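Repro:
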Amino acid sequence: MVLFDQSFTNLLELADDLHWNLLKSFITLDAGFYSDFNRGIIRYAGMVPVIRPNPGRTKDPEKLEKIWNDFYPVAHIYKERYRIERCFAWEDTYRKLAVRYEKRQDTFMGFRYLGFSMINFRSVFGKK
């Protein structure tokens, strides 16, 4: 998928405007963005791509082994991305958090804190 080009350009422009140094920082994307083009523009910008390989691209076992071997050094970073995405999915299970009904910021944040507390409680004590 090459829809990433314009978004990445906008990110680099924003970082430049804010004087952020993104060199050697990681950028994580899901397997839908795994392409030579996307990985190339990320590397060209001086960043490290963390994109889960899409095994459907090739059937050659040697190429697949090389692709997965290139991914293993950064797999732990991708796992952290998955953990964050899972947290957002859990957040969406609470209808009160999925859509903002409150006008006041403190009430809205209070419900978010309550929802995240319930998520943490479920992860520590299990879903019973």
